[in-house]
Amino acid sequence: MLAQTDFIFHAMRPADTYMPMHRHRCYELVYYMAGTGVTRLDDLEYRYEPNTYTVIPPGMPHDERRLADTDVLFIGFSLVSRDMPSLQHGLFQDSDPASILGLLLGMKAEMHEKHAFYAQKLNLRMSEILIEHARSVAPGQPGRPDDNLLYARTFIDENFNQKIAVEDLAAMAGYSYHHFRHLFKKKFGVSPIRYLIDKRLEKARSLLRFTELPVSSVASECGFSNDAQFCTIFKRELGETPRAFRNNEFRRSL
Fold first, then answer.
1. What's the whole-model pTM score?
2. Burial letters 88-115, b for 16+ CB under 10 A, else e
3. How far is CA 108 from CA 79, 112, 127, 245, in A?
4. What's the confidence (pLDDT) of residue 237?
5. Distance, CA of 44 to CA of 82 (rounded, Å)
6. Residue 249 confidence class, pLDDT cut points 50, 70, 90
7. Do β-strands 62-66 and 17-22 pair in parallel, antiparallel, or remain unpaired?
8. Residue 134: which of 34, 248, 2 has the closest Cα?
9. Within 13 Å, how many C-alpha atoms sit on residue 193's CB side?
10. What are all long-range contacts of 155-161, with beta carbons under 8 Å and residues at least 24 apart?
11. Residue 22: which residues within 8 A CB-CB, separation 6 or more?
């Protein structure tokens, strides 16, 4: 047995309500069965949606702001075995089918029915949940989190001229949207959107310098939605319009 269940609580939380920052002496797993909202774990903010869950270590301050009616299961637990690696905290997506939710609903039923040895059954189910969680976020492949981030960056490098959504990159890397943004910026020093814009502007400068393509074609080649978006971003980031940049580069080359 890896864990001991300390409490189980099922609640419906109405939209536009707020749970202020608080903390627990035990671990807490908060599973969102329905609803949307925002939760902060220490200084990181996550947006929850159905079939996501948070793992919160003892003593970590956290809050919850519900943007829609939220159906949520709270499970408090303690680790009782040294065989269990330290748990990665944050917000996570349950697998398909909802493996963790199935175990949680089984725990809720055990708590309600209270058959013989139900407390031991709760602890076994909680241990299974921790194993499922550990498998999904740390499958034992050295360097895998970094590999996933590098894969996402390489995808941007090779497809920056296509429509790319950060949500799709996060799913590709196996992280929630907010967790992916945090990890990407921590590793590469810029957000995924900032990296994508920089790649597009780098290509745009090259095309403006070395080709006679119209500005509209440059915008399309570099993945911008239209000429107006391209010119707005280019001037905001580089201080001059694409046409002025091309003219200035031509003068400097004379």
1. 0.56
2. ebbbbbbeeebbbbebbbebbebbeeee
3. 20, 6, 15, 64
4. 93
5. 28
6. confident
7. antiparallel
8. 2
9. 8
10. 156/192, 156/195, 156/196, 156/199, 157/199, 160/196, 160/199, 160/200, 160/203, 160/222, 160/223, 161/200, 161/203, 161/221, 161/222, 161/223
11. 61, 62, 63
Residue 31 to residue 252: CA distance in whole angstroms: 60
Is CATH 3.50.30.20 the right assignment for the domain spanning 142-254?
no
Sequence ranges of the domains in the chain: 3-137, 142-254
* Topology of the domain comprising 3-137: Jelly Rolls (2.60.120)
Classify the C-alpha dihedral 81-82-86-92 as positive or negative: negative
pLDDT in tens, 147-168: 688 888 989 998 999 999 999 9
Q: Residue range 60-88: average pLDDT?
A: 87
Please name the residue that has the structure tokens 């609640």: 11
Find the length of the chain: 254
Does position 142 have pLDDT exceeding 70, yes or no? Answer: no
Rounded CA-CA distance 248/116 in Å is 82
**CA–CA distance, 237 with 206 (Å, rounded to integer):** 15
